[in-house]
């Protein structure tokens, strides 16, 4: 009964005019960046982070969340029609989605992708409503040792799943921690790594770092090659999948939803991992695996459901523990912090309007997305024809303005340009920025919890292994660190290792 | 047959350079942590986490270097093979020039040339389209920010903007 009352309260918040508008803007921009290759949800969210300052916390966060799950819908359109993934979680949809489109079945591919996403998104929200309050109740008992170990696990999982060598990803995570520690020490107020510059006393801002590493660097990488687009020009008809399509897709949608939701909750996991895992699972379970890669609808239905369910599941660790499981959630944490809010176990009880309002808005957003992505598919197809030589300069201008407006400080523009250039060379040398950004956000919390646990335990390092949750997290992190040394596990890691940055 | 784009102990090995830069950064962070004082394990000071993170950085960087030497790695040149490497370099040059010009010239006088250069350099947009976009978009954004949102953008020495 409590849950129903809370949901009703949430809908009361989400259905106000201004929140509906922000929700629509969020899902619209999300679909837009999902459709446009080269710009992912991370770039868009970092670009719009300063905009959240202008409204209430609810409105800002509703919009940011909308961009994330909206991009999951939009990404499939580009994958199916152009064979270029709109964002990383739709990479796997290209394989069978584009083959279906080539055979004149673009409509059912887009249709099952949208319906699968809707079903998965709805399931993830219901599960979020049921799981989050209970987990928050347990999380109240978490001490600094548990938080420290959980953050270590999150970072290790992300480095494990990041493309390229694990030492490189771990090095990036360490650099992220160091960058996060720049500025005044929160305990002793001693300046660290400020090089005598007043601008660095408060540390480096999240917005310039993320916009540089994901916005500017992405544009620099994209300018290297002329983007070729093989757009399916035939008129898209019959978006509703037929009975046989539904029969073939029912299992993959259900399995993808469950798998995606579970992988979304895990620290370091997320939509990208979920979509690949779902594709691999469907291929393995299929009686005719040879159809995969040649236009099997299961290869579209499973991954698209999985990435949307994961996007919903990823809110659980952020909302209940205050720990972002991936970079997108780290940006959302930034939006909370900008408004002076701290997500965590107390958020649901102290700020129920915000929590349930966001959850309810996600349901409304899913309905909006279904309408945006099916009847209005023609509009998104037209958008795919937008020339990149005009789009890229505009993105650069918007990133400059976005960074400046977030702090009214020219120094942040310099920081963004510097990180853009560093990010470009990092990617060229095979260093992924995702672990750096997550560690940048987690770094100060990680340090704070480590120092608190050491002070509380009077320097007894056993405190991390004597507490069961902390010990389990550290043990799992250790297994993942050792895993790449074993050849069999290294191969498995290479199979699931992904480019989270796109 | 050896792959010429994969080298071991050569200065052109890009993995080696990546590792060396990581090692230098790790060394610097370790030294900074030491300088800030480590404190004790009962009461860690400001440099405690920095110091140990620096050590970890050195360990990971060393692992990258060892792997670069034993397994080899792609050459620096091969990383930019078959791509239009001059395009990102031109964009970087434009961004650096913009960062020097932003404070003295102000937002409008620095962003209009930046836009024009980017529109002409990436994949040249014809002049008749590039000029209006380069002028109208920054001016429009400046107007929205200054007049509607009351955000003051840098106006530079000439006070334009």
DSSP helix fraction of chain B: 55-70%
- Count up the domains of chain A: 1
Question: What structural class results from the helix and strand content of chain B?
Answer: mainly alpha
Report the β-strand fraction of chain B as a percent range: under 5%
By DSSP (H or I, 4+ residues per run), the number of helices of chain B equals 5
State the total count of DSSP E strands of chain A. Answer: 2
CA-CA gap between termini of chain A: 42 Å
Cα distance spanning the termini of chain B:
62 Å
Note the total helix count of chain A.
Answer: 23
- Mean pLDDT of chain A, to the nearest integer, reads 83
Overall description:
The complex is a heterodimer of chains A (502) and B (161). Chain A has a two-stranded antiparallel ribbon with strand order 1-2. The model of chain A has no long low-confidence stretch (mean pLDDT 83). Chain A is globular. By secondary structure, chain A is mainly α. Chain A has 23 helices and 2 strands. Chain B has 161 residues and is mainly α. Chain B has 2 domains: 6-79, no CATH class; 86-148, no CATH class. In chain B, 67% of the residues lie in helices and 2% in strands. In chain B, α1 (14-35) runs antiparallel to α2 (48-71) and α4 (86-121) crosses α5. The termini of chain B are far apart. At the A-B interface, α8, α9, α18, α19 and α20 of A face α1, α2, α4 and α5 of B.
Tell me briefly what this model is.
By secondary structure, chain A is mainly α. Chain A has helices at 2-14, 17-35, 41-48, 57-82, 91-102, 106-139, 144-161, 166-181, 206-223, 243-265, 271-285, 298-313, 315-321, 327-338, 347-350, 352-373, 377-383, 388-407, 410-428, 434-456, 463-466, 468-482, 487-496; strands at 183-184, 191-192. Chain B has 161 residues and is mainly alpha-helical.
